[in-house]
Amino acid sequence: MASTIRLTMAQAVAHFLKVQMTIVDGKKVPIFGGVFAIFGHGNVAGMGEALYQVREDLPTFRAHNEQGMAHAAIAFAKASFRQRFMACTTSIGPGALNMVTAAGVAHVNRLPVLFLPGDVFANRIPDPVLQQIEDFGDGTVSVNDAFRCVSRYFDRITRPEQIIPALKRAMQVLTDPADCGPVTLSLCQDVQAEAYDYPESFFAERVWKERRQRPDTDEFAAAIEAIRHAERPLIIAGGGVLYSRATVELKAFAGLHGVPVAVTQAGKSAIPDDHPLCMGSIGVTGTSAANAFAEEADLIIAVGTRLQDFTTGSWALFKDARARIIGLNTAAFDAVKHDALPLVCDAREGLTMLSEALGGWKAPAAVEAAAARRKAEWTAAANKATAATNAALPSDAQVIGAVQRTLGGENSILVCAAGGLPGELHKLWHAGAPGSYHMEYGFSCMGYEIAGGLGVKMARPDADVIVMVGDGSYMMANSELSTSIMLGRKLTVVVLDNRGYGCINRLQMATGGANFNNLLKDARIETMPDIDFRAHAESMGAVAVKVSSLADLETAIEQSKGNDRTSVIVIDTDPLITTDAGGHWWDVAVPEVSTRPQVAAAREKYEAARKLQR
């Protein structure tokens, strides 16, 4: 008879997680970087006691907000290139629901995180228990069913032995390059405390090794044929290049075959910005260089990208009607988008095999010549946008320039998420080392920034982590500032205060709308808020300062390098100025009918632009 060990279900979860391992840079390490936990009545007795027992092997981190801690866990996985990840546990009800938004972030960005929310009583004797939402037509539903649409795998544990297959399935999803994403195991609170005789073999150490899929023979042959006939090829590098750690292979492929490279938000830093064939960002927030190549391309090699609308200019960017796409991706779901020739494989394997098969093939010499010219033109435009001036209110681009000059070193990682900053950073930030640009723009989730910075710092403790955040996002979620100080993870946070939602205000104006409800001055208010972000950050324990000029900003950043904890630097910015150079049309539907002539004019332009969509 097989040996068993008697544990509660929650204890089984904790003991299982602590023995899951992986290999990073040739060294065996725990695959779970730890567990973020906010305890409540639905998990404190079960998971709380279980995590206490393994606290030396599986560290537990206390946070201040459930969504924030989940964002930190997701950023940890992203900064680890999906090689390691974290778990998050909460009580039932609001604690669990607070993580659903973060689950959406992980799902969209294909990032691994294990959610362990408490749930109602499986025996239903105390129903309705505190924080339980009752479904009037289905007795099996709880708030945790909200996780179903934002999880790659979901399970509700109503018996202690069910955790055995559930955890095995969870690990498969968390570590699979194609299926990777959030997993939710909903833990009924009474079952957390129930004991079961678990097989000792369930707690044997397991080392999870990376699967690198090689391409199908026929798909590979079709891709080679398409590349050999291309006269104006372009590579679009997405986040999959980084997750595959295929940056060396991408750079080698581009250089050997003379193919220019454009990068998505997730793919920025997959090739250094100073590489001669790196044309920078593509699409709506793209550089003039990258978008010029995209418009005339007859072949797009899309590597590790899901080709969302910001990348494709809402599918109006590629002007050559005969242009073909090769979808090199671990997920067939992404590889076949928009009639692409699928090449379902790992990015590193695929690029290496393609390059070997192509041999001495190279794009026409005119392509590299155009790359040099366009890159020089864009560099001049970008330098102009980021140059310091004495303007009373600097632009976002000018602040980016100041931060880049003072903190944009080889050891720096830039973190951002939503608002106007992602567009400016995508075009203007100079990314070097892989992972040095950390942008959450798949879900464009306001409030990710500070918590994300914490997660990055936990994954990369030796890096200088810079968080750039607008006042709107700061107001939505800032509590993990305190967590960063509590855990000794120093961040440098630059808050750009344009007194409202400046990005959406500009979009509102561009679509013919009136200035309404975005900037504070245009909202329904009795008293204009005068928010002191410096004082607020200081009250959270940060070293904080407000500056009044770009020169003072650079000085404050230099001084912050000597601080022993998280530093917050606040600067007022202009809500209307954005970089005119680069960019592309984006499909935002304009009303067909309106009493305002500005909307009618915007609709006319909108209808003309839609005719260019593929």
From TrEMBL:
Residues 419-571 form the Thiamine pyrophosphate enzyme TPP-binding domain. Keywords: Hydrolase, Thiamine pyrophosphate. It is an enzyme of class 3 (hydrolase). GO terms for molecular function: 3D-(3,5/4)-trihydroxycyclohexane-1,2-dione hydrolase activity. Belongs to the TPP enzyme family. InterPro entries: DHS-like_NAD/FAD-binding_dom (IPR029035), Myo_inos_IolD (IPR030817), THDP-binding (IPR029061), Thiamin_PyroP_enz_cen_dom (IPR012000), Thiamin_PyroP_enz_TPP-bd_dom (IPR012001), TPP-bd_CS (IPR000399), TPP_enz (IPR045229), TPP_enzyme_TPP-bd (IPR011766). It comes from Mycoplana rhizolycopersici. This is 3D-(3,5/4)-trihydroxycyclohexane-1,2-dione acylhydrolase (Decyclizing). Residues 221-354 form the Thiamine pyrophosphate enzyme central domain. Residues 47-131 form the Thiamine pyrophosphate enzyme N-terminal TPP-binding domain. Its EC number is 3.7.1.22. Pfam families: TPP_enzyme_C, TPP_enzyme_M, TPP_enzyme_N. PANTHER family: 3D-(3,5_4)-TRIHYDROXYCYCLOHEXANE-1,2-DIONE HYDROLASE (PTHR18968:SF9), THIAMINE PYROPHOSPHATE ENZYMES (PTHR18968).
